[in-house]
Amino acid sequence: MLSHLGDGEKRIAERKKQLTAVVDMSFEQRQLYCKLVGQAPPELPGLLAAFWQGLMADCSNPMSTREDFSNLLHATFSAQPMPARFFWKEGVHDTSDEFCRDLLERLWRREWTEIKMSDWVWIGSAISMSRAHLEPATFLYYLPSLLLGVIEEPEYLELALEAIIPLGRDRRPKGRWWGELLETISLDQCAALRAFLVHVRSAFLRSDQGPFWITAAEALISEAETFWDTRIPSLTTRIKR
Predict the structure, then answer these.
(1) Which domain holds residue 179?
(2) What is the distance of C-alpha 46 from the center of its chain?
(3) Is 192 contained in some domain?
(4) Structure pTM?
């Protein structure tokens, strides 16, 4: 059955057969993530961590192209079905308001794969305002368009980073909106966000200002890394229930 595969592909296929039931994450998503990040999250169970180490040996070339990252996002964030509800159910939204109209015009009833960075820029205002207006599942649905847009247009990196961490100096997820988002996001989607942070840190933060110079983008990346690293254990526990 595996005779048409090379030795490396056979090893990967064997690991897939052994561990497909460990967590609710497809083999393709695990492969793409480990190629991009280059390391297994330490919070994963021992058996799965061992799988990651072996898989990385078979996928030793890091993922660095736009196509690689696009493949990861498409494997992790499905374009269908689209969210049933657009605006946050606990908010008050005036569809005659220009900001709400822009959200509807640029996002509503469009698959995330159709959304470009120009759409997010057109909407304007702080990304946290767009986030607060949308149902958590809806914001999560459209988020990969923002992440992929940054790979193409890195000048908007801070916009994407602000989108994936809460407001406030402590960056703590407060209120029902964040509670629902963290109940909605899957472990593989969380892993994709973490992979995004690793990718942009290595690709875009090559400062020649010296070790004591920290840019706003670098500070945001560090905050986002801390935030999502602390979410992985609770997400893993939720999936095992």
Answers:
(1) 64-240
(2) 24
(3) yes
(4) 0.72
φ/ψ of residue 61, rounded to 5: -85, 120
Strands of 66-220 (E only): list them: none
3-state SS assignment for residue 68: helix
Alpha carbon distances (Å) from 69 to 104, 122, 195, 199, 229 = 27, 24, 9, 9, 20
* Closest to 73 measured CA to CA, from 151, 129, 181, 157: 151
CA 189 to chain centre: 5
Q: Report pLDDT for 70.
A: 84
The closest of 184, 104, 90 to 136, measured between CA atoms, is 184
Alpha carbon distance 216, 150 (integer Å): 16
- Asked whether residue 136 is assigned to any structural domain, the reply reads yes
Q: What is the pLDDT of residues 66-98, one digit of tens each?
A: 777 888 888 889 999 999 999 998 776 777 788
Euclidean distance between CA atoms 62 and 145, whole angstroms: 22
Tally of structural domains, the chain: 1
Q: Given phi > 0 = left and psi -120 to 50 = alpha, else beta, which region is 52?
A: alpha
Q: Is residue 210 domain-resident?
A: yes
Q: In this structure, is residue 26 part of a structural domain?
A: no
